[in-house]
Design goal:
Chain lengths: ~150, ~110
């Protein structure tokens, strides 16, 4: 744990589990509310967590989500075991999606998940290794403007 | 306009009661793409959709939507109803399609 961390917790997310999909994000949101952070910070953090969580459900095998709050920001790091992303620049493009027909029927696959994270976070990074997995990290500042 | 008033004016069916019938509606958004709703719906909006599976509940909970309006009288999965209960998400339903109900809601003064 980082010295200045006020709070930190880890969650596990399972790939392919559409039944529990989203529950980690809902839990994190509840937690942030209990901690008493500002509503718009909570809102943005929850959106970022949700999109990152759904990508694990849709594309990866499993992931660990590490979540830390310091006096300055909320930091979330999601490391998954999965296929990785071949072309990150392409994946970041709004509208690009490799979602299956079945996922699209459910309303996934707009290709807006990663752009949604980028638009709501203050810092956003992706690293990926083919056939190994993907690491998504983002930060939301607690003070100052977005 | 309050959620209950909109429900009455538009003849919407209440599927699971109201989490908050006095919720002041901030707007409406029609879409069947979940990430599009995440991007473009706002807090206290009603969300008009034909999606009825479980995953719509997390979207509504995270975005703090006033209600989900299911169109075409689509049957709603049991899992969805249960999850809606847990997350206190209001589900409404109409026999109209997305175009028709969106127009009606617009006519009620929600733009
Ligand atoms: N964790 C991941 N592992 C492997 N591939 C991923 C991962 N996250 C995203 N991708 C790839 O990046 C693409 C774009 O992701 P993004 O979240 O923006 O859109 P989407 O998931 O396809 O659709 P939406 O999020 O709108 O439902 C995905 O279709 C997928 O090919
Ligand atoms: Mg996505």
């Amino acid at each position: 744990m980082n010295q200045r961390a006020m709070y930190s917790q880890s969650f596990t997310i399972k790939g392919g589990d559409f039944i529990n999909a989203g529950t980690v994000s809902v839990r994190i949101k509840r937690l942030l509310k209990e901690i008493g952070l500002k509503p718009d910070i909570i809102y943005r953090a929850a959106i970022c967590c949700y999109e990152a969580e759904m990508n694990v459900v849709m594309y990866a095998n499993e992931a660990t989500l590490d979540f830390t709050i310091t006096v300055e920001n909320i930091t979330v790091k999601l490391s998954d075991k999965g296929p990785g992303i071949k072309n990150i620049e392409l994946a970041m493009k709004e509208g690009y999606s490799t979602a299956t027909e079945k996922m699209r029927e459910m309303g996934f696959g707009a290709g807006m998940g990663l752009p949604n994270i980028k638009n709501n976070a203050d810092v956003f990074e992706i690293e990926s290794e083919i056939a190994k997995g993907t690491i998504i990290s983002f930060k939301i500042n607690l003070n100052g403007k977005h | 306009m309050k959620l209950k008033e909109l429900t009455e004016k538009c003849g919407l069916e209440t599927v699971n009661g109201f989490a908050d019938e006095n919720k002041e509606i901030a707007g409406a958004y029609s879409s069947d793409l979940l990430s599009d709703v995440i991007a473009n719906a706002k807090k206290d909006f009603v969300w008009i959709t034909l999606q009825t599976h479980l995953n719509i509940i997390a979207v509504a909970a995270l975005k703090e939507l006033a209600a989900i309006i299911i169109v075409n009288n689509k049957e709603i999965d049991k899992d969805t109803l249960q999850k809606a209960e847990e997350e206190k998400v209001t589900l409404l339903r109409t026999g109209l399609n997305t175009f028709q109900i969106s127009g009606k809601i617009y006519e009620c003064g929600i733009h």
